[in-house]
Specification:
six-stranded mixed β-sheet; 12 strands
Length: about 350
C-alpha cells in the first residue's frame, strides 16, 4: 500500500512506540496470551500507541532444533503442534480484544497451525489494528537454518505495508530482516514504521553475538530506508532452560549465554532513539515523529530519486500459495449422497438375520 496521504497541513503521525522484551509461558498458549494482554495494558498505560512483541512469542521458540538431533527433537515438535494456535481462533480473538480495549496497534509473533496439515506450522506475525481488526497474517518467508525442521515457508501475499493510525507499517521476522529484497519490497510500498521481531538465540555458534547482530540489522534497515524500526526480542526464562537443558551442565551454560537478546527503537539515521535493552525482560519506549523521515530521504531515497528503475527492477509474486488448486468448484454435497445402487451387495455371511431365520 502506498504512503498514506497526509493531512492538509502536511503533518505526519507522532506517537509513543513500545518494544516488548519478554519470555513466553513456554508451550502454554493461553497463559502466554494472558501475559501478552497484561504487557499490552502496561504499555498502553505508559502512552504507547504501537506495541511490538517478539517472534514466535505464542507459545515459544523451538530451541530443540539447535540442541537435539531431528529424532530426539520430534516429540518436542508434536508438543509445539498441540500448543500452536489457529488463525483465526480464540487466542487471536483475545489479542484483538486487547488491541481494541487499549487502543493500540499490535504486532505479535505466533506459531500458527495450518488448517490443511498436522505437519505444517508457520512462524507468523499478526498485525492487529487499534480497532481490533486483524490487518495482516505474515508467515516467515524462509525459516532460518535449524528452524526448517519446524516451520514451513510462507508466501509473498503477506509482504504488505499497512495503513494504520501510527503510519505506514511493515513487519518482518528475525532473519527476514537480513533479506534485502524483502526489506526493499516493504520500503517500496511506503513503509515508514518497521516492526522487527526476534528471538533470543543463546544456542547460536559461539562466535555469534545475537545482540550485536540485531542492532546491526536494525540500524541498516532504518538508515537505508530512512524509517523508524521497533525491534522486539524474546528472552530465555529459567523455565525454558529447565525444560530443554535439564541437568546437562554444558547445555545450561549455552542457554544462559549473555548478549542473546536486544530490543529497542532506532531512528531514520540508523541510531537508537533510546538505550536498547539487552537480555533482561522489560519494555522499551520512545517517541516517534515521522516528520524526521523527510529530510534524510532528500539525500538518499532508495525507493525514489536515489535509484535507477530503468536499470533495476524488483518483481514480487504476491499470489497466495495453497497445496492444491481445483479447476472447477467442488460439487454440491448432495451429489455425493449414497444411493442403493452404489451400495455393494451383502454376502450371506454379512446379511443380517431376520425373525423368520430365527
Amino acid at each position: 500500500m502506498p504512503l498514506d496521504r497526509q493531512e492538509a497541513d502536511g503533518a505526519l503521525p507522532r506517537f509513543t512506540a513500545a518494544a516488548v522484551q519478554a519470555s513466553p509461558v513456554y508451550l502454554d498458549p493461553a497463559a502466554t496470551v494472558d501475559k501478552a494482554v497484561s504487557l499490552i495494558a502496561e504499555a498502553a498505560g505508559n502512552g504507547a500507541r504501537l506495541v511490538v512483541f517478539p517472534e514466535a512469542f505464542v507459545p515459544g521458540y523451538p530451541y530443540w532444533n539447535w540442541t537435539m538431533n531431528p529424532v530426539d527433537g520430534s516429540p518436542w515438535f508434536a508438543r509445539l503442534q498441540r500448543a500452536s494456535i489457529d488463525v483465526p481462533g480464540p487466542h487471536v480473538d483475545t489479542l484483538r480484544a486487547a488491541a481494541r480495549q487499549y487502543g493500540v496497534v499490535l504486532v505479535v509473533g505466533v506459531n500458527e497451525r495450518a488448517p490443511h496439515s498436522l505437519g505444517v506450522l508457520y512462524n507468523t506475525l499478526l498485525t492487529i489494528g487499534s480497532d481490533g481488526e486483524l490487518l495482516n497474517v505474515h508467515r516467515k518467508l524462509v525459516p532460518t537454518w535449524a528452524e526448517k525442521l519446524t516451520w514451513t515457508n510462507g508466501d509473498g501475499s503477506s509482504l504488505r505495508v499497512l495503513r494504520t493510525p501510527v503510519g505506514p507499517l511493515g513487519a518482518l521476522a528475525c532473519g527476514e530482516n537480513t533479506n534485502t529484497l524483502a526489506r526493499f519490497a516493504l520500503l517500496a510500498q511506503g513503509e515508514l514504521v518497521h516492526a522487527a521481531c526476534y528471538i533470543a538465540l543463546p544456542v547460536a555458534p559461539a562466535d555469534y553475538d545475537m545482540a550485536e547482530a540485531i542492532a546491526v540489522r536494525t540500524a541498516a534497515h532504518s538508515f537505508e530506508g530512512k524509517v523508524f524500526s521497533i525491534v522486539a526480542c524474546s528472552t530465555v526464562s529459567p523455565e525454558i532452560v529447565d525444560a530443554l537443558a535439564g541437568d546437562d551442565v554444558e547445555l545450561r551454560k549455552r542457554f544462559t549465554r549473555p548478549r542473546s537478546a536486544l530490543s529497542g527503537i532506532f531512528g531514520p539515521d540508523g541510531r537508537p532513539v533510546t538505550e536498547p535493552l539487552v537480555d533482561d525482560e522489560g519494555i522499551v519506549y520512545a517517541e516517534i515523529d515521522l516528520a524526521r523521515c523527510v529530510q534524510p530521504k532528500q539525500m538518499h531515497d532508495i525507493v525514489g530519486h536515489y535509484n535507477r528503475f530503468d536499470v533495476f527492477r524488483l518483481e514480487v509474486d504476491n499470489r497466495p500459495r495453497t497445496p492444491v488448486t481445483f479447476t472447477a468448484p467442488p460439487l454440491p454435497v448432495q451429489h455425493y449422497a449414497i444411493t442403493p445402487a452404489m451400495t455393494p451387495a451383502m454376502t450371506p455371511a454379512t446379511t443380517p438375520a431376520t425373525e423368520e431365520d430365527a
